[in-house]
Fold these 4 entries.
Entry 1:
Amino acid sequence: MGLLDGKVAVITGAGSGMGKASVDVFVREGATVVAVDITGRQDDTAAEVGAGVRPVQCDVSKEAEVEAMIATAVDEFGRLDILMNVAGIADALLMSEMTMEHYDRILDVDLRGVVLGMKYGIQAMQKTGGGSIINFSSVGGMNGAGWTGAYTMAKHAVIGATKVAAIENGEHGIRINAICPGFIVTGMSAGAEDLPGIPEKSVFNRVGQAHEVAEVAAFVASDRASFMTGAIIPVDGGWTAKLA
């Protein structure tokens, strides 16, 4: 018996990193997964993981495409039980040098994409008696760091949106939580794990792996976490527990 036997899940950002790792873990745990990405690499994920994965290309900042993404799960598999809003981007820029083009680009994916996913995911789940939504924030949504203004704004807002949506949808049987990864090795951060001071941010003196976040997500998505909603869950090796 898997944690997610019989569940239908949509996972964005599934072409790489934590999204791809989540597809692998969710299928292992018995879920059917709609693997979503903008790059086309969702097809590679589906080919690697094998049966139980339906790849879909989607720009999560486009409302019509997100609506169609959710409709694919419902039309092809009859329902939506789990939504994982993992897709995200990051770029470094000082607040004093931020352009609105930079601001819009980051927030369109990292915040708008989450909001749109929740909008249509909630609508689908209300029709079938509930479900679980997991939004990906970051340790950057709990604290701040220089050069990360737009990213940090978006990730803080994801936490606020998660709490509001959880409050609004408990009566519908929909649980909505946020995971806040610390420094995790992904394609977006490749090589940075070797920079001085990065491994030491964790109390384990190492960086995290994508599958370690995916394993937590599988539990939070499962019925075993039935009384968990509105929770903000760091998966950061103890980084946010430290004062310095």
Note: Residues 145 and 152 are 8 Å apart (CA to CA).
Entry 2:
Amino acid sequence: MKDIANSTTTNKFSTRRLVLIALITAITCIFAPLAIPIPISPVPISLTNLVIMISIYVLGFKDATISYVVYLLLGLVGLPVFSGFTGGIGKIAGPTGGYLVGFIFLTLIAGLFVEKFPHNRVLAVVGMVIGMAITYIFGTEWLAIQLKMTFVAALSVGVIPYLAGDAVKIIIAIIVGPALRSRLSKMQ
């Protein structure tokens, strides 16, 4: 099954494609700031990775990556779209910025798996797990450097508390994502 974003016969951005990218970017801007801080970590619980994983199904990995990069740029220029309704370069340069940058890898890696194996949920999960692992490594190293802690200490506050929740987000994404893709493909 062709993904919706690449259903045009040319590589140009169609109106439909631009609208879908803008819509997913807006959804990311709405859900990402709704973060829950936890007392044991400087990293809040966020829905950003859930939106990214679902966006891969809706947009395909290229357009999902474009959407996420646009979201990052909006936050970089100061719009309050990051966790806790914050924005600006300070958020990227701060302790949790590595996770924000690392989500680009999640989008690319999980997106490649979903696009190459569109009907195989097991491989979609594998791609999402690998993408999250790369995000975790990148974000944890960044957190460790920023807070002058060991990698293991950063792992214990920046990853371990989130593993169960991220597993649930992956399950939600592999259920909701294909359903959305199917509905949107019928609307063409």
Note: The CA atoms of residues 75 and 87 lie 5 Å apart.
Entry 3:
Amino acid sequence: MVRLISDSELTASSVVANSTMNRERGLSGVNSYARELGFDPAAWLAERGGSAPAWLDLCSGEGRALTEAAWLLPAEVELTGVDLVGPLAPPPDAATRPRLRLVTAALADWAPERSYDLITCVHGLHYLGDQLGAIARAASWLTPDGRFAAHFDPESVRRPDGSVAARAVVAALRAAGFEYRARRRLLLLDGGRPVELPFDYAGADPSAGPNWTGQPAVGSYYRGRAES
């Protein structure tokens, strides 16, 4: 029987308090957001135009991608990163880019004060307990024509008996308007909206072992509403 823990316990786990996640990943190039997501976030924002677009990066690590984007985008663009560990040191140019904010917080306990045109989570959901809750919340933080893009491994979602709930979860996400690209394990949503998925969070297993990336990940357990 797997011992499930709460999200507050999970944040103290060595699997989750990962000091290497997204530390070196930049905006473009070999080890980059552009490569992992299949599009360059800064270029995507620039093409939108408008007065002051905003990008929220969840599980942002050192915030290198955001910091690089700050020098490519107009000064009024708002860039926010949220990470449990946070940057090991503030960016040296942070004072000259007041709209670049790197927040150290547990995602389960944090909520923005505004909506965002782009929300990303590059290989970050693997370390969350309530992954589906985080996805639904992110969808509600988008602007009406904004985009959410995150890596998501449906194989990490389990039922209380330990069986994999991947097929049911992907079907529910698609029914809610998400696109799932299985080859990249990339979840996309265009257009902010309220999302209610038919699952109740039961707890997390930080000992689930490596996922497809080869890195340790968290198992997320849910009960279907019909099973509750």
Note: The longest strand covers residues 199-210.
Entry 4:
Amino acid sequence: MRRYPRIRWLMIAFCFFAIAINYIDRINLAIAAPHIKQDLGLDDTSMGLILGAFFWTYALMQIPAGRLIDRLGARTGLAIAVGWWSLFTVFTAFGRGFTSIFASRLMLGLGESGGYPGCAKVVYSWFAKKERATASGIFDAGPRAGSAIALPLVAWLISVWDWETSFIVTGGLGLAWVAVWLVFYREPEEMKGLNEQERQNLLADRSVQTVDKNEKVRIGGLFRHRTVWGMMIGFFCMNFATYFFVTWFPTYLTMAHGFSLKELGTLGAIPALMGIPGSLLGGITSDWLYRKGFSLTTARKACLIGGMLLSSVIAFAAFTNSVPVILTLFSLTYAGLAFTAANIWTLPADVAPSASYVGTLGGIQNFAGNLAGIVTASFTGLMLTLSHGSFVVPLLVAGGICVFGALNFMFIMGKIEPLPIKKTETVGPVLPADHKI
């Protein structure tokens, strides 16, 4: 059995904490929203726009951020991304009206756009194909951990101090992460002290490249592939439900079911906690199927489809007022979404035509996925205004889109393999893939 550097688990642990902080910095606004509304005199429509502002820049910058990660490398790229979003999390504390908070959230999204493509790049660099889903499951457990931590942490900070303090503290977490990351992270080719045979095993097990490293693939050429569209549509469907948790879930619990701030920080954290084993199990299951002899396509798609179908139970929350039943349904939904996400984030490394396009493909699918954040935040706010506070329509729509996502992975997304790039989709020789700016 081939052996690989054990330090790879430390590298993916860094990614776990980066994405956990990423989600703490996203969700703190959702938790603080009722207090900000009251303090600054904002209505539901304005709050919906603020909650959705992050997703505009986050989605639009995904492809440029992915390309930048591929050029700069994960070490520099992630340090810039985490440092940027952490600073603008802190700046949110000084917002005194709609415009200033809206602008801070736009800038937050700009920085966070590099988070996931950077982590996908780390998975490609440090993990063989048979371990990638497990590694992706570990870093993608970060959102669930971040969501679970954010609820009690931010609720406590607000209750003891105020909503402004919550943004200063959570922003500081990211700045501390950057300092530690820059000290420890290196690519396998550059890491000193590795067993040379383990290093070579890892480098040999990376994906087969379908383009020469000195050829540049046209970004438009990537969109000609059915698999890329399946990745994009599937991620949109998954994130439509996921971002209900990120934006309106705390408000849903307080408005529809009368949760206090204390209950929000305890009972409200249960669904997010269930997402952690869901993410880990999704990655482990996919890699286990692949090692047992199933094709990579079967191993990945079985988990993608199963996770999306499970997450569709969110729709049933529209038909009950029982808090235990609602928490159970949302826990199953979150676990299903996490199970799916662990496999979605293996796809950029699985299908990239070369190492120079892992971050780019991660950015492409995350661009489509985060258009859902804009739609979910704004659509839910609009429905609340039109229905005088009812969450029935948003919950039903989220469940239906989850089912559509499963059908997409089944019928639209193609074979999971490095994209077969044609000569017409390249633009000839460019700087080598390992060139550093």
Note: Residues 429-437 have pLDDT under 50 and may be disordered.
